Amino acid sequence: MRSIWKGSIAFGLVNVPVKVYSATETHDIRFHQVHAKDGGRIKYDRVCSECGNSVQFADIDKAYDSPDGERVILTDQDFDKLPAAEKHEIPVLEFVPTDQIDPILFDKSYFLEPDSSSPKAYVLLRQTLLETERTALVHFTLRQKTRLAALRVRDDVLVIQTLLWPDEVRAAEFPSLEDAPGARPQEVKMATSLVESMSSDFDPTEFTDDYQIELRKLIDDTIANGGEKVIQTDESSSDDGEDAEVVDLVAALQRSVEAAGKNAKSSGGSSEPAKKTAEKKAPAKKAAAKKAPAKKAAAKKTAAKSTQARKGA
Length: 313
Prior knowledge:
Layout: E1 5-11, E2 14-22, E3 62-65, E4 71-74, H1 76-80, E5 89-97, E6 106-114, H2 120-132, E7 134-142, E8 145-154, E9 157-163, H3 185-197, H4 210-224, H5 249-265, H6 278-291, H7 294-312
Helix pairs in contact: 3-5, 3-6, 5-6
């Protein structure tokens, strides 16, 4: 990794020199546009709508159009007059309980590496955050933009996560929920049973981005075939003929519990964008089997025997 910023954390009278690295990266495959006729790459030209001439990036200013139709043009000199935190300092504003920060506020994450011959101050701040179970609220200025951020510890490394401002989070106001009927005890009991049958410890490495995997395979196959397009379509249908709206919620939950048990038995893949391996789902099979009605369990055994008899024949 290459650091994108250098500075220090201002922790009271203590300065903690650090280097900043982007903590995340996308694995999405990027495309560019081409002319469908001859494959030529599409280029974009910055053209002025007034004079029709191409404009160099250095000659471009920023403009804001108000709701009333008024246009305000600002130059780089105007932006330099705006208040901003010290570009090479991350001041700690206060320490707050970690569980008081709503995860919806988290934005971009960055790793912090100690940038001094002695990382003692870095270790001190890390240990203090761990023992107090607090998160430091800081100001973080990157690319001429100052954001509120959370400074916390992850795997013995200090991490900064920029936060959205409160007015950047939309209010969730849905009239349809105001008069929504409450769930019946029987429904809650069955839903709880479903949750238990699908419960597991979270391990992100068990999930895969099937879309990107298949997209990469498609690209590799195309290259291997000399540029010829290789497109495979799945004609199988997942329509089971049932009504889109299930009236009996308890029955739907019961079928979900049974389906969770069946999925645990299967070692095949799933068509979902992100899937878990069958090994982790195996315990759900036992939980689902215990909750299945006796009649259905007996029916499954009868069906299994019939299948074996046909194979033997």
